[in-house]
Amino acid sequence: MRRKNALVTGASRGIGLAVCSCLKKQGIRVLAPARQELDLSSEESIGDYFASLKHSVDILVNNAGINLLASFKGLTEENITATLKVNLLAPLRLALKLAPQMAKRGYGRIVNVSSIWGLVTKPGRISYTLSKSGLVGLTKSLAVELAPHNILVNAVAPGYVNTELTRKNNTLKELNKIKKSIPLQRLAEPGEIAELISFLCSDKNTYITGQTVAIDGGYLCL
Known about the structure:
The model has no long low-confidence stretch (mean pLDDT 96). The protein has 7 helices and 6 strands; from the N terminus they run βαβαβαβαβαααβ. Helices cover 45% and strands 13% of the residues. It is α/β, with parallel strands linked by helices. It has helices at residues 14-25, 43-52, 77-105, 126-146, 164-169, 172-181, 190-201, and strands spanning 5-8, 29-31, 59-62, 108-113, 151-158, 212-215. Strand 3 (59-62), helix 3 (77-105) and strand 4 (108-113) form a beta-alpha-beta unit. The chain has a 6-stranded parallel sheet with strand order 2-1-3-4-5-6, with helices on both faces. It has a single domain, classed as NAD(P)-binding Rossmann-like Domain (Rossmann fold), CATH 3.40.50.720.
């Protein structure tokens, strides 16, 4: 059988890096372009990347994302535009580029990394919640459109994960408070999120599509 290829965005650290490791253990060739190769905020860069791509892609993991915190009063057009370009429009554009070749082969797996803030929200997350809830809707729509071609499309919604971004947006005191608010009393590790993504990308997943799976240590139960 032909070796499968996966394109993973935001793969230099955190969840993306852990996803790459999981997929490689499955024998999958991983394409993990750096920002200078694939700038997700630029439609032109996306076009150039695919024009130069030498491998067909069977699996797409839309992991890259930005979280520009801003309150309602401090929200700017630049904040909204930048967030939507990377978190929502880029996953759509990548899927549109890859879906035709996946359909031609009769096989594909797409996993979008949303967030619990795409299902609920909190102050300072307007643009982020807008983008991540949109990603949940995009997941459902693509799943319906692509199902006849054996392309399964799902999303995962991580809660608080022990990543650089989480530590950047929360003080140590806030992180300790967050841990106490989670039933499992801790943050997730990137590898735990990656294992779920890896399963949804694998041949073991044959019937799950259009779903958003929260992986949050029970946070949304409260």
